[in-house]
Amino acid sequence: MRETPNKPSGARPENESHITEERLEREGTRLSADDLSEVGDKLRLRAAVVYEIIRQEGEEELARAPRNLWWSGIAAGLSIGFSVLGEAVLRAYLPDLGWRHLVENLGYGLGFVIVILARQQLFTENTLTAVLPAISAGKRRTYWRVLRLWGIVLLANVVGTVLFGSALASGLFLTDPVFGAVEALSAHLMEIAPLQMFLRGIVAGWIVATLVWLLPSAEQSKLAIIVLMAWLIAVLDLTHVVAGSVEAVFAFWTGHAGLADVVGGFFLPTLAGNIIGGSALFALIAYAQVSEEI
């Protein structure tokens, strides 16, 4: 009896191959299944997919224990101080020419890189993700959980920034040129009028929220996107409630601002602007564009 030759284990039966080719032709392409799989890997994430990724991250943040949120928030408050320090170092050692403003503000991204890649709790960044589950669920209990998260993270961030800003103001850790640069940056911040603090805070909150929206699709470009978006906040002279708190505390200890200026002139207007620009406007618009798909 003549034996039937064995087919390779990976070979596809002729009738199955024929069916696959017919299916691909009906779908309007002559690409193989492997080619189509590669195309799928290269496609950009749909807005609904990005939304769902951020929403699930928000669910995880809301489920974290208060103690974990607290210590992560303090770490973020300390880490974001390196944004001020990074900008000050470049300002201190670059020549005072017209282009210095554009270059020195690249240092502002340093703290954001640390906070975001280390997954620390930063108000206006991680707290935005918590808004999406609240909007999706629409339940009072979820809104209370969001407020709890905001309160813990914001207070912890402030504690971290007070520690970092006080350490910088002590003069024990900085060279004279860097100390002078931090002093100049802090004094400039406190010269901004409260209304401008608020308005610039809206734009800064929007930019941070945009950063959050971009990260799921960033893949290997996360570092560049974080630095670029943080640079945009700094170069436009916008106000961020956490990073700016380091400068405000420094200004208080060095006599460039009183407590009323720090709280009423900077902190509260900037906080309100960041919330409106980031958590309110952006989250609502992000939800509106995918509400029919989720």
Order of helices and strands: HHHHHHHHHHHHHH
Shape: globular
Helix count from the secondary structure assignment: 14
What is the CATH homologous superfamily assignment of the largest domain?
Glycerol uptake facilitator protein
User: How many domains in all?
Assistant: 2
CATH topology of the largest domain: Glycerol uptake facilitator protein
Question: What is the rounded Rg?
Answer: 25 Å
Mean pLDDT: 83
How far is the N terminus from the C terminus? Answer: 61 Å
Portion of residues in beta strands equals under 5%
CATH class of the largest domain: Mainly Alpha
- Ranges where pLDDT stays below 50 over 5 or more residues in a row are 1-5, 7-12, 14-19
**CATH architectural group of the largest domain:** Up-down Bundle
Extended strand count: 0
Helix content: over 70%
Q: How can the largest sheet be summarized? A: none
SS-based structural class?
mainly alpha
